[in-house]
Amino acid sequence: MIHEVDEVLKGLLGGGALAGSGIDVSLDAPTRDWAARRNAPVVNAYLYDIREDTERRQRGQLPVRDERDIVVRRRRPPRWFRLSYLVTAWTKTPQDEHRLLSAALATLLPHELVPPGELPGALAELGLSVPVTVSGSRTESRSLAEIWSALGGELKPSLDLVVTVPFPAFPEYEAGPPVTEGAMVRLRGTDGGPRSSERSHRPHQVAAARAARETTAADRPDAP
Known about the structure:
Residues 186-224 are annotated as: Disordered. By secondary structure, the chain is α+β, with helices and mostly antiparallel strands.
């Protein structure tokens, strides 16, 4: 799933205000060595944290239906994870970097919720929209200064991008076949003797019998 989120993110950053600009979108760790090797303007989206969003955790089972809308399997609800990206711009001057960050922000803000139709692979199969948060309140324990220190670089202006993505919970369980036969009613004598009658009731037969009784009652002279 993580690589599919990377694909979605590269598509978002490469479009919008940055479409046709020729600016590359990189997912590499922005270390000091990486910064020294680059030779063109780059927008970098570095995945630095993965945590479960426990507030979204659900219990129970979800039905999986076929093309006839019949439940064929059951599965556990997906587990949601927060993928945090550090989005930075790399050029020769701070002014150009700020312009790139502004373009990235303008591109990301309209996409607060990515619908299933715009998601790839297994993400689309879940049929769930993916929330995207840009520069929201930080809930992770690590500060940006600590992240840059771990990367061995100097602190740069950045966008904190969080993509909350569902991960399927396995395994899936096969569901029993749909009920096609009605209930069987067997009657016995009050003394526990042999069976006196046997009747099978299907849902449509029960409904027809009830409608017939109501019609008969309405035709009686003393009916209200």
